[in-house]
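Lay summary. Proteins are chains of building blocks that fold into shapes, and those shapes determine what they do. In this project we predict the shape from the chain. Here is one chain we studied, written as its sequence of building blocks.
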Amino acid sequence: MFLKQYEITLPADYDMAIIRDRVAKHGASFDDFPGLALKCFLIRERGRYGAEANQYAPVYLWPHEKQMWRFLAGPAFAKIKADFGVPPVSTWPGLAFAAAEHLDIDHIASVTRVMTAIPPETDLQALLAREREEADVAVSDDATCLARAVGLDPRTWT
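And here is the predicted shape, written in a compact code that computers can read:
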């Protein structure tokens, strides 16, 4: 499993309705995208909820790397590059993923990303087991948590 996100920072006066319209027009095309388990079209608006900038920052969950590469090398991402330039793409190997039984992706209203440093002495096998268990508990015990995905950035150990 891989988690992937690119963040496109837009000018302070950018009309974010353009991004909303883009998502409304093209979002459904991802519903049947081969190999894509989950995609959230994330938008940050300067001045709302503490956001310092306007951003379009989709996040994806890919169960297998082959489909992730098909997306990056295919026409959907080529459109992103043509419209916004080539954004850096953050990619995290997945440690854990769980989704609530009642998950309806149309009802995901927000996504929270938490970055936590992993100390050098961390037992990675124990971390993997703990994150999988915590993901399962989060979606079963918290009615507001629809899904939890955990990835590891081995470049920064977060």
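What the prediction tells us: Strands lie at 2-6, 8-10, 38-40, 43-44, 54-56, 59-62, 89-99, 147-151.
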